[in-house]
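Subject: for your reference before the review

Hello V.,

The reviewers asked for a structural picture of the protein, and I figured it would be easier to keep everything in one thread rather than splitting it across files. Below is the amino acid sequence we used in the manuscript, unchanged from the supplementary table.
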Amino acid sequence: MRLGSALLRLITGIAVALIMGPIIVVVIVSFSSGEMLTFPLPGFSLRWFYSFFSIPEMRNAFALSLVLAFTSATAAVAFGMMGAIYTSRRDSWFSHILQLLFITPLIFPTIVLGLALLLLYRTFGMWITPGLFIAHVIVCLPYSFRAVLASLQSFDVSLEDAGQSLGAGPIRSFMLITLPIIWPGILSGWLFAFVVSFGELNVGLFLTGPGVVTLPIEIFSYLQFQGSHPTSLRTTRKQSLALGRRRQRSQHARNR
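And here is what came back from the structure prediction:
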């Protein structure tokens, strides 16, 4: 028994290290004062945060991603909670189909989902912002649904029945009894949905447009087309100097 618990703790520790390790390294390196990714850090500085927020396009994309992630995560939790309440208290073929429909966005690649939504929006003439919001809600629904459903499956429904037998209505018994018990599942589902929506790239590649660009799309476009990363700048400068020297040498050879 002790060996099993020790092995479980070891596996859990390795999994946590593999998940959190890269994130911690990225956070630490973001405070580096150097122009290259070196470790240990040459010094601590906020220069990269200042460079990021000094670009208007980055600020606008960051604000849009925050608002979009907050609203889509809230809507996904609301719809996921309603679906989880129904499926956890109904044992029928329709509830099983409904569970499969909520999990479907995890099965299909987000690129396929983005392309399908793009074709659908073009058919109905959907605006960019509402269409992007609906797409993010669809992508976030499985995470919020599963988190709330896990909390509801361990909830004792007789507590609600006891509250209603004392005169409380269905809504009041849910607000006073069920909601305080299942709130960890709701909170975890909201956090999962927020993180997924904030970092969603594939759907945004198809559904964003002029003036409506999320932060992952803006960063991707900036690094690809602007080429302002320190590494690419140094490489470009070295290549330019080498080409300039070659041209000078060739000109001197021709003059001779």
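For the response letter, the relevant points are probably these. Confidence is low (pLDDT under 50) at residues 228-244. The chain is about 80% helix and 0% strand.

Happy to draft the paragraph if you're swamped.

O.
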